[in-house]
Amino acid sequence: MLLGLTGGYCSGKNLVARLLAERGWTTCDVDVLGHAALERSLPAVVELLGPGILKPDGGPDRRAIGRRVFADPALLARYEALVHPVLFSLVDEVLRDSGAKDLCLNAAILYKLPQTPRCDAVLEVRSPVWTRILRGRARDGLSAAAILDRIRRQKPLWERRSEYPGPVLILRNSGSEARLARRLDAALRRLEGDPASQASYH
What we know:
Blueprint: E1 2-7, H1 13-22, E2 26-29, H2 30-49, H3 62-69, H4 73-97, E3 103-106, E4 121-126, H5 129-140, H6 144-153, H7 155-159, E5 168-172, H8 177-191
Parallel strand pairs: 1-3, 1-4, 2-3, 4-5
Helix pairs in contact: 1-8, 2-4
Protein backbone atom coordinates (compact mmCIF):
# COMPACT_ATOMS: atom_id res chain seq x y z
CA MET A 1 0.00 0.00 0.00
CA LEU A 2 1.16 3.52 -0.78
CA LEU A 3 -0.11 5.94 1.86
CA GLY A 4 0.11 9.72 1.79
CA LEU A 5 0.57 11.49 5.13
CA THR A 6 0.18 15.22 5.59
CA GLY A 7 -0.79 17.84 8.12
CA GLY A 8 -0.37 21.49 8.93
CA TYR A 9 2.39 23.13 10.91
CA CYS A 10 2.92 21.34 14.25
CA SER A 11 -0.11 19.11 13.74
CA GLY A 12 1.85 15.96 14.61
CA LYS A 13 2.37 14.29 11.24
CA ASN A 14 5.96 13.34 12.05
CA LEU A 15 4.72 11.63 15.21
CA VAL A 16 2.26 9.67 13.06
CA ALA A 17 5.13 8.77 10.71
CA ARG A 18 7.07 7.39 13.67
CA LEU A 19 4.05 5.38 14.80
CA LEU A 20 3.71 3.97 11.29
CA ALA A 21 7.39 2.99 11.29
CA GLU A 22 6.85 1.19 14.60
CA ARG A 23 4.09 -0.77 12.84
CA GLY A 24 6.40 -1.94 10.07
CA TRP A 25 5.83 0.77 7.49
CA THR A 26 8.63 2.26 5.44
CA THR A 27 8.36 6.04 5.66
CA CYS A 28 9.75 8.58 3.23
CA ASP A 29 10.19 12.05 4.72
CA VAL A 30 9.63 14.31 1.73
CA ASP A 31 10.66 17.34 3.80
CA VAL A 32 14.13 15.77 4.16
CA LEU A 33 14.19 15.15 0.41
CA GLY A 34 13.36 18.83 0.05
CA HIS A 35 16.58 19.69 1.84
CA ALA A 36 18.50 17.55 -0.65
CA ALA A 37 16.64 19.19 -3.54
CA LEU A 38 17.59 22.62 -2.23
CA GLU A 39 21.26 21.61 -1.99
CA ARG A 40 21.21 20.41 -5.60
CA SER A 41 19.45 23.60 -6.74
CA LEU A 42 21.53 25.95 -4.61
CA PRO A 43 23.43 27.81 -7.38
CA ALA A 44 20.16 28.72 -9.10
CA VAL A 45 18.55 29.66 -5.77
CA VAL A 46 21.47 31.96 -4.92
CA GLU A 47 21.12 33.56 -8.33
CA LEU A 48 17.43 34.16 -7.60
CA LEU A 49 17.66 35.30 -3.97
CA GLY A 50 21.22 36.53 -3.60
CA PRO A 51 24.13 35.38 -1.41
CA GLY A 52 22.38 36.58 1.75
CA ILE A 53 20.58 33.24 1.98
CA LEU A 54 23.85 31.40 2.58
CA LYS A 55 25.31 30.45 5.95
CA PRO A 56 28.96 31.27 6.70
CA ASP A 57 29.91 27.72 5.69
CA GLY A 58 28.29 28.19 2.27
CA GLY A 59 25.24 26.04 2.95
CA PRO A 60 21.66 27.26 2.55
CA ASP A 61 20.04 29.14 5.42
CA ARG A 62 16.54 27.70 5.14
CA ARG A 63 15.06 30.16 7.62
CA ALA A 64 16.43 33.10 5.63
CA ILE A 65 15.05 31.56 2.44
CA GLY A 66 11.67 31.06 4.08
CA ARG A 67 11.51 34.67 5.24
CA ARG A 68 12.19 35.85 1.70
CA VAL A 69 9.95 33.61 -0.35
CA PHE A 70 6.93 33.34 1.95
CA ALA A 71 6.64 37.12 2.04
CA ASP A 72 6.30 37.32 -1.76
CA PRO A 73 3.99 34.87 -3.59
CA ALA A 74 5.56 35.64 -6.97
CA LEU A 75 9.04 35.00 -5.59
CA LEU A 76 7.82 31.79 -3.94
CA ALA A 77 6.52 30.56 -7.30
CA ARG A 78 9.90 31.23 -8.92
CA TYR A 79 11.70 29.48 -6.06
CA GLU A 80 9.44 26.43 -6.29
CA ALA A 81 9.97 26.31 -10.06
CA LEU A 82 13.68 25.80 -9.35
CA VAL A 83 13.49 23.35 -6.44
CA HIS A 84 10.32 21.32 -6.91
CA PRO A 85 11.28 19.53 -10.15
CA VAL A 86 14.38 18.21 -8.37
CA LEU A 87 12.27 17.20 -5.36
CA PHE A 88 9.72 15.41 -7.53
CA SER A 89 12.53 13.48 -9.21
CA LEU A 90 13.85 12.39 -5.80
CA VAL A 91 10.38 11.17 -4.79
CA ASP A 92 10.20 9.19 -8.02
CA GLU A 93 13.51 7.53 -7.11
CA VAL A 94 12.12 6.50 -3.72
CA LEU A 95 8.99 5.02 -5.28
CA ARG A 96 11.03 3.19 -7.89
CA ASP A 97 13.68 1.80 -5.57
CA SER A 98 11.84 1.22 -2.29
CA GLY A 99 10.46 -2.27 -2.81
CA ALA A 100 8.49 -1.85 0.43
CA LYS A 101 5.13 -3.56 0.83
CA ASP A 102 3.77 -0.60 2.79
CA LEU A 103 5.27 2.80 2.03
CA CYS A 104 4.23 6.16 3.49
CA LEU A 105 4.97 9.49 1.81
CA ASN A 106 5.19 12.00 4.67
CA ALA A 107 4.92 15.48 3.16
CA ALA A 108 3.66 18.88 4.24
CA ILE A 109 3.16 19.66 0.53
CA LEU A 110 1.59 16.28 -0.24
CA TYR A 111 -1.22 17.76 -2.33
CA LYS A 112 1.37 19.45 -4.56
CA LEU A 113 3.25 16.24 -5.35
CA PRO A 114 2.54 14.79 -8.80
CA GLN A 115 2.95 11.34 -7.22
CA THR A 116 0.07 11.81 -4.77
CA PRO A 117 -2.66 10.50 -7.12
CA ARG A 118 -0.81 7.17 -6.99
CA CYS A 119 -1.47 6.90 -3.24
CA ASP A 120 -4.10 4.37 -2.20
CA ALA A 121 -5.25 6.77 0.53
CA VAL A 122 -4.20 9.89 2.41
CA LEU A 123 -4.03 10.40 6.16
CA GLU A 124 -4.43 14.06 7.09
CA VAL A 125 -3.43 14.89 10.66
CA ARG A 126 -5.33 17.68 12.38
CA SER A 127 -4.75 19.26 15.75
CA PRO A 128 -6.35 22.20 17.61
CA VAL A 129 -4.78 25.57 16.84
CA TRP A 130 -3.93 26.28 20.47
CA THR A 131 -2.05 22.97 20.68
CA ARG A 132 -0.11 23.81 17.53
CA ILE A 133 0.80 27.20 18.96
CA LEU A 134 2.17 25.59 22.12
CA ARG A 135 4.16 23.06 20.09
CA GLY A 136 5.51 25.72 17.75
CA ARG A 137 6.64 27.92 20.63
CA ALA A 138 8.36 24.99 22.34
CA ARG A 139 9.93 23.49 19.21
CA ASP A 140 10.80 26.52 17.09
CA GLY A 141 10.71 29.41 19.55
CA LEU A 142 8.17 31.30 17.44
CA SER A 143 5.62 33.81 18.66
CA ALA A 144 1.93 33.00 18.48
CA ALA A 145 1.56 35.58 15.70
CA ALA A 146 4.32 33.95 13.64
CA ILE A 147 2.77 30.51 14.11
CA LEU A 148 -0.67 31.75 13.07
CA ASP A 149 0.94 33.31 10.00
CA ARG A 150 2.51 29.96 9.06
CA ILE A 151 -0.84 28.23 9.49
CA ARG A 152 -2.50 30.87 7.30
CA ARG A 153 0.12 30.50 4.57
CA GLN A 154 -0.52 26.75 4.38
CA LYS A 155 -4.23 27.21 3.67
CA PRO A 156 -3.82 26.97 -0.15
CA LEU A 157 -2.40 23.46 0.30
CA TRP A 158 -5.66 22.20 1.79
CA GLU A 159 -7.65 23.84 -1.01
CA ARG A 160 -5.94 21.37 -3.37
CA ARG A 161 -7.28 18.39 -1.42
CA SER A 162 -10.21 18.09 -3.83
CA GLU A 163 -7.77 17.28 -6.65
CA TYR A 164 -6.82 13.99 -4.97
CA PRO A 165 -9.07 11.21 -6.31
CA GLY A 166 -8.74 8.73 -3.44
CA PRO A 167 -10.00 8.53 0.15
CA VAL A 168 -8.79 11.10 2.69
CA LEU A 169 -8.96 9.98 6.33
CA ILE A 170 -8.79 12.69 8.98
CA LEU A 171 -6.66 11.68 11.96
CA ARG A 172 -7.30 13.92 14.95
CA ASN A 173 -4.32 14.54 17.21
CA SER A 174 -6.00 16.13 20.21
CA GLY A 175 -4.86 14.06 23.16
CA SER A 176 -2.11 11.74 24.30
CA GLU A 177 0.22 9.79 22.04
CA ALA A 178 -1.53 6.60 23.13
CA ARG A 179 -4.88 7.99 21.97
CA LEU A 180 -3.36 9.04 18.66
CA ALA A 181 -1.91 5.55 18.23
CA ARG A 182 -5.34 3.99 18.79
CA ARG A 183 -6.86 6.32 16.22
CA LEU A 184 -4.11 5.46 13.77
CA ASP A 185 -4.67 1.74 14.27
CA ALA A 186 -8.38 2.22 13.64
CA ALA A 187 -7.65 4.17 10.45
CA LEU A 188 -5.31 1.44 9.22
CA ARG A 189 -7.93 -1.21 9.92
CA ARG A 190 -10.41 0.81 7.91
CA LEU A 191 -7.98 0.97 5.00
CA GLU A 192 -7.59 -2.79 5.25
CA GLY A 193 -11.36 -3.16 4.94
CA ASP A 194 -12.45 -3.79 8.53
CA PRO A 195 -16.04 -2.46 8.70
CA ALA A 196 -15.96 -2.32 12.51
CA SER A 197 -13.50 0.59 12.33
CA GLN A 198 -15.55 2.83 10.04
CA ALA A 199 -16.16 5.59 12.58
CA SER A 200 -13.54 4.92 15.23
CA TYR A 201 -10.47 6.72 13.87
CA HIS A 202 -11.77 10.19 14.74
